[in-house]
Amino acid sequence: MTISTAAPQPLPFSSAVGSLIEATDAIKNFRAIALLALTFISAVLVGGVLTMLAGGMSSPLLAFFGGLMAFLVMFYGSNAVGIMLMRDAQGQPGMSLVDAVLVSLVTSHRLIAVVFLEFLIVLAAMIAIAIILFVCKIPVLGPVLYTLVFPLSAIVLGVLVFALFYVMLPLAGPAAWSGATVFQIIARLNLIVRTKLVSVILLEVLLFLITTFVALLIFGVVGTGVSLTSGMSAGILGLGGQMNMYSLASGLSGGSGYIIAAGLGGGLLLAAAAVVPGLIFTKGVCIIYLNATRNVDFSASEASLNDGLATVKKKAEEARERARALAEQATAPATPAAAAAPADSLQCPSCKAPVASDDAFCGECAHKLK
Length: 370
Description:
The protein is mainly alpha-helical. It has helices at about 15-20, 30-55, 60-90, 95-105, 110-135, 140-175, 180-230, 235, 245-250, 255-275, 275-295, 300-330. The longest helix has about 50 residues, at about 180-230. The chain is elongated and about 125 Å long.
C-alpha cells in the first residue's frame, strides 16, 4: 500500500457539502455539549436573577448590568465551545473544559477587535458613497454622474454587506479559534471574500438549512411538552386560560412564586434545547472555514495588508510631524524689525564707511546722508 505525501488539495464543492454533513457529529462531543449547556443555563440564570432583582428594585442600571453579564457569559462560553469544536474538526486532541475557558478568556477579545474593524470598513465605505452622492447634486453633470454612481454604489454596498454577514462575521470565529491573530484574521477573510465568496455563501446556506431542520425537530418536541404541561399547570399558576409565554415572561418582573419559577424553568428548558443546534452550527462554520483555507497560501494577502498598514502609518506620522512643525512655527516669538539693522552696523552708501544714525554727512567722503 502506497502512502501519498502530497499536500492536501482543496476539496471540490460536492465534497465540501458532504463534509458539512459531518457537523451533526458535534453531538458526540460530550465535553462541548456540557460546556455549551452550562453556558446557556448560566447566562439564563444570571440574566434572569438580575432582571428579577431589577424589577423588584425598579433599577434600570441593575437590569443593564444583568444583560451585560449574561452577554459576557454567552460570549466567552460560546467561544470556548468553538475552540473545542475547531480542534475536533482539525483532528487534534481535545482539551478540558477549564483549558478551553482559559483560552477563550485570553483570545476572544480578537473577535471584538475584528468586528470593530469590520464596522469601520463598512462605515468608511458608506461615507465615501455619501460624498460621491453629494457630488452628484451638481447641476447639469449631476444626473449623468448619478446614472453611473447609483448602480455601482448598489453593487459595492451589496457585496460588502454579503461579505460582512456571510463571510466576515461567521468565519471570524473559526479563524480566531484556530489561533490566528487579529491581523491574520483580517488578511485571511479578505482573501476568502475575494476568491471564494459564492461557494462559502452556498455552504453557509446549506448549514443554515441543516441547523434549522434540527432546531425545528427539537423545539417541536419541547414546544409540545411545554404546551401540554402549561395547560395542566394553569390552575396552579392562577392564569386560567391566559397561559402563554408572554404571561410567564411578564411574571419574572413581579409575579407569584409559581410564575417566576415557571419563567426560569422555561428559560432553562429553552436554553438546553438550543444546545444541539448551537453545536451543529458552530462545528459547521469550523468545517466551512477549514475547507475555504485548505492548501491556501495567505502570505501574499498578509504581506499586502501589512504594506497597506505601513503606508497608512507612514502618512499618519508625516501628517503628525507636519502639524507639530506648524504648531512650533505659530508659537515662535516674532523678531522685532528694528533688530535686523542695529545702529552700529550702518554704512555710507557711497564709500561703505561706518556712520552713526544721527550723522548728516559721511566723515570720509562727505556724502549727504540726510
